[in-house]
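Dear H.,

Thanks for agreeing to be a second pair of eyes. The structure we're designing against is below in token form, covering all 309 positions.
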């Protein structure tokens, strides 16, 4: 990677990713973009407003900056997508299709994140294999499987250098997530610091894969810099650092904040989404093919989150 365009760059992943990429590759070699435009987006480096569903605007931005890599993060997340599946399809699939066409035209490498949301109730739930049944029951999951298949198609048919990971729930303190099902694992830290209490919308005993944002950012960079000859499962690799349920994160917080309390106010819509996803992923393919090796476990993440919020 030398000249990089990040779409959806003002979201939860993009905020941390742009900062780290600029530290490594240089401020002016990382162009960020988002549908929204705010003055503060221009402070950290080159930013241009761009709607990824506008094929012409997407192509012109990438060509103008002569990028060699596109990290396409623009997407609607699971819970928000169930409220507006038409908007989700437009952004998550038409936007992705544009990223493939632009990458093909300009010869760019392309990263597109998938998700544990690409699995469904018929997927083996524990130690979910790299290659297995993918029949998600959310519009979000269907868009993610579509994206995986399209990215593989463009690699096989046109030789496009497409790569992706299936992200678990991502936890960070720099930018809040928006409209996801795993967001409870971010909100709990903010509520712990603010109120010493949290009401979880995900029920006790609901295990989901999770990862701290520094490990997620490292995984994108590691994958994009990996030797292409070693990549078999390009779109997309299972990645995860841990699997936990709300009681686990509560206990982890109580090791630092003994008076922290939590109760449950379950949201049936987001609980149903969580229940359709795996409990834990098998990440051996990522570890073997490009050295995926997350550093943060739950307690180390909790310590860092509570220190920085
Ligand atoms: C969501 N945070 O909850 C996203 C992610 C694995 C979950 O895709 O929709």
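And this is the sequence the design step returned. I haven't edited it by hand at all.
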């Amino acid at each position: 990677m030398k000249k990089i365009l990040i779409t959806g760059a003002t979201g939860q992943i993009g905020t941390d990713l742009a900062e780290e990429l600029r530290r490594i590759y240089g401020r002016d070699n990382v162009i960020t973009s988002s549908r929204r435009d705010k003055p503060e987006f221009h402070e950290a480096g080159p930013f241009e407003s761009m709607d990824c569903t506008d094929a012409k605007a997407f192509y012109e931005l990438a060509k103008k900056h002569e990028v060699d890599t596109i990290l396409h993060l623009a997407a609607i997340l699971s819970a928000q997508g169930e409220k507006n599946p038409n908007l989700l399809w437009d952004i998550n699939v038409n936007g992705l299709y544009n990223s493939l066409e632009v990458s093909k035209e300009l010869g760019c490498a392309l990263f597109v994140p998938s998700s544990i949301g690409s699995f469904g109730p018929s997927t083996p739930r524990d130690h979910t294999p790299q290659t297995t049944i993918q029949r998600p029951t959310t519009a979000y999951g269907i868009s993610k499987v579509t994206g995986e298949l399209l990215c593989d198609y463009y690699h096989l048919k046109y030789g496009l250098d497409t790569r992706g990971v299936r992200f678990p729930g991502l936890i960070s303190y720099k930018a809040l997530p928006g409209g996801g099902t795993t967001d409870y694992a971010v909100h709990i830290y903010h509520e712990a610091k603010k109120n010493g209490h949290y009401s979880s919308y995900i029920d006790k005993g609901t295990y989901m894969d999770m990862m701290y944002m520094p490990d997620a950012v490292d995984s994108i960079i590691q994958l994009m810099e990996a030797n292409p000859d070693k990549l078999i499962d390009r779109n997309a690799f299972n990645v995860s650092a841990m699997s936990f349920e709300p009681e686990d994160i509560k206990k982890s917080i109580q090791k630092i904040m003994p008076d922290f309390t939590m109760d449950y106010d379950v949201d049936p819509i987001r609980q149903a989404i969580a229940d359709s996803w795996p409990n834990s992923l098998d990440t051996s393919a990522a570890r073997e093919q490009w050295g995926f090796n997350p550093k943060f476990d739950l307690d180390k993440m909790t310590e860092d989150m509570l220190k920085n919020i």
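Two observations from my side: Residues 85-106 form the longest helix (22 residues). The chain is about 40% helix and 15% strand.

Warmly,
E.
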